[in-house]
Amino acid sequence: MTAFGSAPSRFPDDDGPRPGSAARLSPLRELQLLESSQAGDPDALRELLVSYQHRVYAVCLRMVRNPETARDLTQDTLVKLIEGLGSYTGRAKLSTWIIRIAMNCCLSHLRKQKLRIHKSLDDAVGLTGMPRSGTITDPREPGPGTRVQRDEDQDLLLRALDGLDPEMRAILVLRDMQGLEYQQIGDVLDAPVGTVKSRLFRARSALRDAIERIGGREFDASGPDH
After folding, report:
1. Which of 66, 107, 163, 213 shows its CA 20 to 30 Å from the CA of 113?
2. What is the pLDDT of residue 160?
3. What is the CATH number of domain 118-226?
4. Best-predicted range by mean pLDDT (51-60, 109-118, 162-171)
5. Which residue would you say has higher pLDDT here, 54 or 155?
6. Of 9 and 150, more confident
């Protein structure tokens, strides 16, 4: 509990956010809620938090692939958001600022779990929690003849993603899952655009190499802007 209120206690289901589960606010409505929240209006704060909690949860789930841990990290993010809202100046978009808080929480958690993260990729298969629809790029709905191959590809991708360093995983989540622009990613990771592009290239290369190493065949994990 803070001067601004408390974070919502209800979280999305374990399979992640559903389309339409929390409609994004219009820029005008978001600004109104932000100003009211900073003025101490608890109802405005709650509406603002609810509008972002599904997106925060999605980021956390894709980073840690464990629903319980993702819920904890979502709670941590929302608490930090509440604590820092009074000092938010608007230099970055509110959504970018919130995702940065979420990503910092996730990276801090993963660094503390470095030993687990650096286990063999076979051990990483046991980490569950990401829905099968959560891939580096949004797959088109396959026909019956391609469903098995798609599932195999996703299994390879998730195993490889688990084996990447947290920083590499972060940039792939931000660009290829959340669809952030390079400048937004730079704001989240506190890095210039050129660095973002080079890190993304290295992360995609590392992901592709890991997938090929596990699966024994070529796999295109490059994304649309390679």
Report:
1. 213
2. 85
3. 1.10.10.10
4. 51-60
5. 54
6. 150
For the chain, the first-to-last Cα distance in angstroms comes to 45
Mean pLDDT for the chain overall = 78
The continuous run of DSSP H or E covering 17 comes out as none
Ordered by start, the domain boundaries in the chain are 1-112, 118-226
Task: Choose among 79, 81, 194, 220: nearest CA to 137.
Answer: 220
Question: Residue 164 above 60 pLDDT?
Answer: yes
Residue 2 DSSP SS3: strand
Rounded CA separation 186/195 (Å):
8
Ranges assigned E (strand) in the chain: none
Residue 107, pLDDT > 70, answer yes
The kind and range of the H/E element at 34 are: helix 27-38
Contact present, 57 and 21 (Cβ < 8 Å): no
Instruction: Look at the alpha carbons of 33, 38, 39, 42 in this order and tell me if their dihedral is positive or negative.
Output: positive
Do the Cβ atoms of 77 and 105 come closer than 8 Å?
yes
Report d(CA 189, CA 86) in Å as an integer. 22
Percent helix, strand, coil in the chain, to 5, is 65, 0, 35
The Cα 25–Cα 55 span in angstroms is 12
The DSSP result for 131-168, as a single string, is: -TT--SS-PPPPPTTTHHHHHHHHHHHHHHHHHS-HHH
What's the pLDDT tens digit per position in 40-97?
999 999 999 999 999 999 999 999 989 999 999 999 999 999 999 999 988 889 999 9
